[in-house]
Design goal:
about 180 residues, mainly alpha
Length: about 180
Amino acid sequence: MDEISNWVRRVQAGEPGARDGLFAAAYGELRKLARSRLYDGGRNTCLDTTALVHESYLRAVRGSELRAHDRRAFFAYASQVMRSVIIDAVRERQAARRGGDLQRMTLDTALIDGLPAAEDSLLQVDQALVRLAETEPRLAKVVEMRYFGGCTDQEVADVLGVTERTVRRDWDKARMLLAAMLAP
């Protein structure tokens, strides 16, 4: 049993300080995961690698219980938390850009509509992923773990209890469904 799986089991057993120990043991890998997420799709969120890892940790600590039973499930959970942090940061940034709760008056509506496409597309992907999860939860989980979690097909297969070939088919199907949802 590796160190992270051991810490996950200690957290599940309710050992005091185990959650801190888990994140300390996984910190280096969480930074790699965060770096890959920010490089691929979250680079316009004003988050850096450290901020993403720390905010993810704070959300995980605030959560009621850790939904993982081993190393792979922990990193799947971490990728889900990182996804929510990135999406919330984009939403917050867009709300601030639009004035938040301020009463606004503009002379040119083109100024309001000039948002960066990367942020808008990230929010559209998130909304499409939520809709996909309602009808095809496993497909949504595959997308979340591969895109937001940086997991390999084999890692996803191990967590979901399916074959690697099934993961590849699910990934292809999910990409087609998401493309159809995101089409103008």
